[in-house]
Amino acid sequence: MRSILASSFMGGAIEFYDFLLYATASALVFPRVFFNDLTPGVAAFASFGTLAAGYVARPLGGAIFGHFGDRIGRKCALVTSMMIMGIATTLIGLLPATSQIGGAAVVLLIVLRILQGIAVGGEWGGAMLIAIEHAPGGKRGFAASFASLGAPAGSILATGALSAATLLPDEQFLSWGWRIPFLLSIVLVSIGLFVRLKVAESPLFKRFEEEAERRRIPVVDVFTRYSKRLLLGTVVGISQLTISGMASVWAVNYVVEHGVDRTSVLNMKTCAAAAMLVTTLISARICDRLGRRPVLIAGIVAAMLFAYPMLLLVQQATVVGFAVAVIVGQGIQGIIIGPLAAFLAELFPTSIRFTGSSLCFQGASALGAGFTPMAAAALVSTAGGGFVLLGGVWIGVLAVCLLAAVIATEGRRKDLTAIA
Predict the structure, then answer these.
(1) Is the pLDDT of residue 310 over 80?
(2) Rounded Cα–Cα distance for residues 250 and 283 (Å)
(3) Phi and psi dihedrals of 169, rounded to 5?
(4) Is 94 exposed, middle or buried (0-12, 13-18, 19+ CB in 10 A)?
(5) What CA–CA distance (Å, rounded) separates 50 from 47?
(6) Residue 101 host element (H or E)
(7) How confident is the model at residue 202, as a pLDDT?
(8) Distance, CA of 406 to CA of 409 (rounded, Å)
(9) Which chain regions cross the lipid bilayer (predicted)?
(10) Which domain range does residue 319 map to?
(11) pLDDT of residue 284
(12) Residue 103 and which of 113, 323, 340, 381 are 20 to 30 A apart at CA?
């Protein structure tokens, strides 16, 4: 079991390193490398648009890898997704700037970002199911959380690598320094594949393998027979991903554009990812005792209460203000993400669990994290630089997520083999 959890964690960390490295670079690097002919505000918006393309592609990746994960096996899907991610990330590190090849650079950047989105769309669901379908019943929430732990761990690695690169003089950093963390992906992926190839296939999938082969296309079953569960799972998932988009992308761009030292910002972002990792583990443990829904509800309520304080801290545009905002914000995100993996897995039967849980999580990613930075930038611009409108909209979205968590059924005591 330790080897399985280590594989789930390491695979998730490597994939999210690649995916979240792009998110940080979209705030600090890409506006000046690929959109340097635009004004700073428009360049940031355009860069966030390429970021959103990867999030939009994540549900597609969830559907594609979910299909093969539910029909052929979890392990095969995981290995393939990791290879695609490593290749796409390495190519981004080799991509010429707009000043060298013109608009083709932006087109290629978007294509590679979409491939990243498709790859990570298959990673989370497979890593989570390998863990939860091996775990004993009373520890499913804790086991499933190891796939989610890949996000803060990957963020720590990505932010740390990019932070080290920012120590270079500005010209060298924008010319070649930012590329080094992207090129490191090929090394990390090689290590991840070595570990992942040794992990056994999910025992629950083996038990239901013949049934899976007889079923129709899994994504069709999810949309036609489990649409309510899909909707509720997606809306609940959006809650923690809006925090990610606000704290780890939009706020980073905002404070750096308002004069805060980018190395200090990245260091604080690393601390925030560490806080999220800790709260994720704690909340996952608690959800195995109290249930998924009570912990989810507590986390969403905490996010609603902290929304305006976080925005006010970001608006100060100081290292201390940003640090408190992002560390507390992503700590709250960890409270939600801890039980989320088990909550989503327990919504669907084994034969479509990969597809169903992946579509929930990746759909939430597209709507929550993918468009949040763009929406935040647009709302602040519409309000003339004020944050009142942004805070009101954010709390409204979280209120809808809270309602979905209240409506959803509790799955802690369910037998995974008996879910229909």
Answers:
(1) yes
(2) 26
(3) -55, 150
(4) exposed
(5) 5
(6) helix 98-101
(7) 61
(8) 8
(9) 12-30, 42-65, 77-95, 101-121, 142-164, 176-197, 230-252, 264-283, 295-314, 320-347, 359-380, 386-408
(10) 2-198+207-418
(11) 92
(12) 381
Q: How many angstroms from the chain centroid is the CA of residue 406? A: 23
d(CA 26, CA 34): 10
Give the CATH number for residue 347.
1.20.1250.20
What is the C-alpha to C-alpha distance for residues 80 and 84, in angstroms, rounded to an integer? 6
Complete DSSP assignment for 25-92: HHHHTHHHHTSTTS-HHHHHHHHHHHHHHHHHHHHHHHHHHHHHHHHT-HHHHHHHHHHHHHHHHHHH
Phi and psi at 408, nearest 5°, equal -60, 155
Inter-residue contact 360 to 235 (CB < 8 Å): no
| Angstrom distances, CA of residue 210 to CA of 73, 206, 215 | 11, 8, 9
Tokens of 371: 């468009």
Taken in order 93, 96, 99, 103, the sign of the CA dihedral is negative
Q: Outline where 291-318 has alpha helix (H).
A: 292-315
- The answer to whether the Cα torsion of 238, 285, 353, 192 is positive or negative is positive
Tokens of 73: 């096996």
Could you please report the per-residue DSSP string of 261-297? -HHHHHHHHHHHHHHHHHHHHHHHHHHHHH-HHHHHH
Residue 222, φ and ψ in degrees, nearest 5: -60, -45
- Encode pLDDT of 255-309 as tens digits: 988 888 888 888 898 899 899 989 999 999 999 999 999 999 999 999 999 999 9
Q: Torsions phi, psi of 215, nearest 5? A: -80, 165
What does the alpha-carbon distance between residue 126 and residue 264 come to, in Å, rounded to a whole number? 35
Residue showing tokens 């070649």: 176
Non-local (6+) Cβ contacts of 347 within 8 A are: 226, 229, 230, 232, 233, 356, 357, 360, 408, 411, 419
